[in-house]
């Protein structure tokens, strides 16, 4: 019999305490727990290894509250399945990928892709408020993630900085534990408040059902926290926060710069006047692009100067290339100090091996028009190299020493890694790569 250790939180089984380093717990005969990553209010996240597919995974252990009733246990399991199913249905680059759900030791465990990167909350706590240029990139990615979820009828209900992971230029929305699909039964008891008070929309705090527009409020509060270092209505305790949310005017951000109108539009208390997805995207892109000149005859040189100036400001403030503008210029301006640029090349989809396959860390060639590709350079100084869908016969080559890449349909792309061609997958299969040049 294994007894809980005094160091474990209440309700934890302590099952791992008596295990030696060589006897890690294995879930479903394939997922081996390696080490604890962190703990939250309702569980623990573990670093794990999928021994069947030989890949790293993140495993979320969900703990049931002590003395839980059988009815509440059923609700808990349903909410766990909902947390797993929501992102599994969406399958987009800006939403965490879920691989499996396992019931072991009387508790559910969610197996997800391993993203070794800080959350937005951790970044704010470590470095303070972020520059508007980087927050604009984060906001644009989260708008895309929410749009994908909302089109599928899924409302997240708990968007906040701790549920946003920043992996280089990749922005990932996680934790769909409170999400629900339209038409599904409610798993929230009457009178029970669900969500994070500092980021919840005022209509939800007042007892109304969450909607896509309440997710957009939470996005506005998250972007506010990113540029200011704290959410707009945060107070010393929950009741004071909810009181401020209900009774006080929304404060204007002081450090948002061109993002001010985006954030204030998302933080409109009346949901009917709140920015929609489309208006938020338009306003955000206008903010990134800078003010438009009303004079006719504005030269192309002037427009290019404005764009380059914005990019230089982004690099100086963030230390990374964080906007789509940088991606475009990277493709059109080959070569930079210490790294090779993305090289679009010719080629056909006839299966012929590229002449330079052995000299490149990664080559991708489209077998058909569904070859979608995302490539980024990892690390604090990294950037997105491409996020595009190739046409049949198009080819991309990458020579950076280290790369992260995602191929969204392995049946639509021919892929060479360090000169070795990858096996062709089945339609709809997604594959992620962390590459190092040999």
TrEMBL record:
Q: PANTHER family, per this entry?
A: SERINE/THREONINE-PROTEIN KINASE NEK, SERINE_THREONINE-PROTEIN KINASE NEK2
Which superkingdom? Bacteria
Q: Which Pfam families match?
A: Pkinase
Its keywords, alphabetically, are: ATP-binding, Kinase, Membrane, Nucleotide-binding, Transferase, Transmembrane, Transmembrane helix
Q: What's the protein name?
A: non-specific serine/threonine protein kinase
Domain (Protein kinase) ranges:
31-288
Q: Which InterPro entries match?
A: Kinase-like_dom_sf, NEK_Ser/Thr_kinase, Prot_kinase_dom, Protein_kinase_ATP_BS, Ser/Thr_kinase_AS
**EC numbers for this chain:** 2.7.11.1
Enzyme class, first EC level, given as a word: transferase
Transmembrane feature ranges: 304-327
Where is ATP bound in this sequence?
A: 60
What PROSITE patterns does the record tag this protein with?
PROTEIN_KINASE_ATP, PROTEIN_KINASE_DOM, PROTEIN_KINASE_ST
Which family does the UniProt entry place this protein in? Belongs to the protein kinase superfamily. NEK Ser/Thr protein kinase family. NIMA subfamily.
Q: Where is this region: Disordered?
A: 333-353
């Amino acid at each position: 019999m294994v007894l809980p250790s005094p160091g474990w939180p209440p309700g934890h089984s302590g099952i791992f305490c008596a295990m030696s380093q060589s006897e890690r717990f294995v879930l479903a005969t394939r997922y081996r727990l390696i080490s604890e990553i962190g703990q939250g209010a309702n569980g623990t996240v573990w670093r794990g290894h999928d021994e069947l597919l030989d890949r790293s995974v993140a495993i979320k252990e969900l703990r049931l509250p002590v003395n839980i009733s059988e009815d509440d246990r059923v609700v808990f399991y349903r909410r766990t399945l909902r947390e797993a199913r929501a992102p599994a249905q969406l399958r987009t680059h800006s939403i965490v990928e879920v691989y499996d759900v396992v019931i072991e030791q009387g508790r559910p465990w969610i197996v997800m892709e391993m993203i070794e990167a800080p959350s937005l909350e951790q970044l704010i706590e470590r470095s303070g408020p972020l520059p508007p240029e980087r927050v604009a990139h984060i906001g644009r990615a989260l708008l895309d993630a929410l749009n994908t979820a909302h089109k599928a009828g899924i409302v997240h209900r708990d968007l906040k900085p701790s549920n946003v992971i920043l992996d280089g230029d990749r922005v990932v929305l996680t934790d769909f534990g409170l999400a629900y699909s339209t038409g599904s039964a409610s798993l929230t008891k009457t009178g029970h408040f669900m969500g994070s008070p500092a980021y919840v929309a005022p209509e939800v705090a007042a007892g109304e059902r969450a909607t896509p527009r309440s997710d957009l409020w939470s996005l506005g509060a998250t972007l506010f926290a990113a540029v200011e270092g704290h959410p707009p209505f945060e107070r010393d305790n929950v009741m004071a926060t909810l009181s401020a949310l209900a009774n006080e005017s929304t404060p204007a951000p002081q450090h948002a710069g061109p993002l001010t109108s985006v954030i204030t539009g998302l933080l409109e208390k009346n949901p009917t006047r709140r920015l929609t997805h489309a208006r938020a995207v338009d306003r955000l892109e206008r903010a990134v692009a800078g003010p438009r000149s009303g004079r006719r005859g504005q030269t192309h040189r002037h427009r290019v100067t404005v764009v380059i100036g914005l990019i230089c400001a982004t690099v100086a403030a963030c230390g990374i290339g964080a906007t789509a503008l940088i991606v475009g210029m990277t493709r059109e301006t080959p070569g930079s100090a210490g790294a090779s640029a993305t090289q679009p090349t010719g080629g056909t989809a006839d299966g012929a091996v590229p002449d330079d396959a052995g000299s490149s860390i990664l080559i991708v060639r489209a077998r058909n028009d569904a070859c979608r590709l995302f490539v980024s350079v990892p690390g604090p100084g990294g950037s997105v190299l491409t996020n595009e869908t190739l046409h049949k016969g198009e080819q991309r080559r990458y020579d950076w020493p280290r790369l992260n890449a995602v191929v969204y349909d392995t049946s639509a792309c021919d892929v060479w890694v360090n000169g070795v061609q990858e096996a062709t997958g089945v339609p709809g299969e997604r594959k992620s790569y962390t590459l190092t040049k040999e």
